[in-house]
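User: quick one, fold this
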Amino acid sequence: MKSTSMRDAFFNRLYEIARKDKNVMIISADMGAPSLDKFRKDLTPQFINTGIAEQNMVTVATGLALNGKKVYTYAIMAFVALRCYELIKVDFSIMDLPVKIVGVGAGFSYHDSGPTHHSTEDITAMRVLPNMVILNASDSIMAEKFADISYKSKEPTYVRLDREIQPNIYRQTDNFLNGLTKLTDGKDICIIATGNMVHIALEVSKMLKKNSIEAEVIDLYRIKPINTKLLFNYIEKVKHLVTIEEHLLAGGMGSAVAEILADNNKMLPLKRIGIQDKYYYAYGGRKNIQSICGLDPNSITKTILKWVKL
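Assistant:
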């Protein structure tokens, strides 16, 4: 599992599920993966490749779902979500069909392909759709468990997977049913992160500790619906709240947290850290792009230190 990508961890587990349940269908928009080869070879009737035709993939998935199939659509995240957005709204959200939308390439995962392949707006778009569940994996163990969670879900579900292999944070015994997990304790600041930024948040917490600031880190992996009760229990005693995401700030995870605070009359200083209102035509690797837009550990730590001292 240590060297397994989130994509392969997810589909390897889904393969085991699909062998037992012939109603499970995988539809790929011309996306290849070692974990999908087993579907093509062993479960041929349960695998469809629509080619580079993501919108058609959604239409095919709709027909299958209406006939009782448990359908998973899969493509690069920027395309499976935004290129298909109206169809997802009409076919999955309005009709409340339990189709699972699986996208690979969260944030700047496809750093070498430029803004057309960056997935930095999709949370904003998907979370406003009624009935939609959003899951965002931070390691391969979680991605594997998302296969079980999504299989049992009766709602349309959007699963975000990172392209890069991330170090494992969790153990195989974790079930991820609560929607969020507290990874470290801290009385001064609570840092809420999602996806690959959870790993950076853990680094930031260590850097803040050197500055005598104890930071609690929360992995918010179910962005919609957020487990409000558990989140409020975790942030009850902290003095400041920070959200970190490799996503545009407008309408992203930080906005979802801000809305919950406002709607529940929770008066807590909040700093949202994410991508500003622009696209980044930058190369040199993902870490370089993160550094340019202030999402590397050093930049985030400096931003937090400046903010808490105001």
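User: anything notable?
Assistant: The mean pLDDT is 96.
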